[in-house]
Amino acid sequence: MSYFADKLVNDPNEPTLDMWLVDQALEMTQGYVLNFSDATFNDFVRRKFGIDATAPIYTVNGASKAKRLRALLRSLVPGAQAEVLRTFWAYRQEIVGHGFASELEPKVKADFLAMIARLDGVEQPIDIAIVEAFSDDPTLAELVEAIQREIQANAPHAALDRLHTYAMKKFADLIERDGGTVGHGDALHSRAGRYINGLRQAGQISEFSEKIAKSTVQVCEQFNQVRNNRSLAHDNTILGIAEGRYVFETVLSLLRFIRALDEAKFGR
Origin, by domain of life (predicted)? Predict the structure, then answer.
């Protein structure tokens, strides 16, 4: 649905994000988000969702709080969109009684909450075609099969440690195809950084893509923390399904982005 489309033409059964409703509910029409300052908005998103709202992937359309929140929402699967919107709505309810937010028209409020409910009920299958056996390494084939089993069981949060191992192997393979060597102790973000730097030096990425690629290293560094502290790699309290799915999908999106930049070396 177009951002400027009339809200009345929405199919009430269509589980899609209506940005017009988001703008009205969170007072985003002038570039703001409720009563947040830049600092408090960044802190809120970081504390509630573990996301850096200043990352280039969220600022490609502008740096205002509203534009960054729209970009963030569009990057998420429906269930995660519902979680973000519900969290901001709870904050709105806290401040409205203190005069920091205006009362919504009853129909807008009802439509906004109904949209969250629809988004929350959607479970789109995760497309893991990007996770493939790119070499004849038998352990790689077993790794891919294990990831596939967890996704079929709707347990992406349980597959995060295996996805981390896969990403480690993938970036090592890409570096080696360029003639480089990878040490056993090289962390994921180090491997990703080396590979992306090689693309930059070879002139294979545009200025726009380079800005997004830089955030890849930051995401990989955070993924190290998730793998070590919030996955089944150790005796950890693992992420919940919604949060685990978001992390899983984020890493898959990065792999798809890398494949788009360097298609020739991505497969076998």
Answer: Bacteria
Q: Is 104 helix (H, G, I), strand (E, B) or coil?
A: coil
The full set of domain ranges for the chain reads: 7-120, 138-266
* Phi/psi at 264 (5° precision): -60, -35
Record the tokens describing residue 264, joined without a space.
């020739």
Q: How many CA atoms lie within 13 A of 206 on its CB side?
A: 4
Q: Distances in Å between the alpha carbon of 58 and those of 17, 72, 118, 216?
A: 17, 6, 24, 13
Model confidence pLDDT, tens digit, residues 219-240: 899 899 999 998 888 888 888 7
| Rounded Cα distance, 156 and 163, in Å | 9
| Residue 101 · residue 91 · CB < 8 Å | no
> Residues with Cβ < 8 Å from 112, sequence gap 6 or more?
21, 22, 24, 25, 85, 89, 104
Query: Amino acid identity, residue 84?
Result: V
C-alpha angle 206-62-68 in degrees, rounded to nearest 5:
110
To which residue do tokens 């269509």 refer? 14
Both tokens of 166, joined, read 């896969």
**Alpha-carbon distance 168 to 188, whole Å?**
6
- Say if residues 144 and 255 touch (Cβ distance below 8 Å): no
pTM of the model: 0.59
Amino acid in the structure at residue 10: N
Closest of 22, 168, 163 to residue 84, by C-alpha: 22
Written as one string, the DSSP assignment of 12-39 is TT-----HHHHHHHTT-TTS--TT--HH
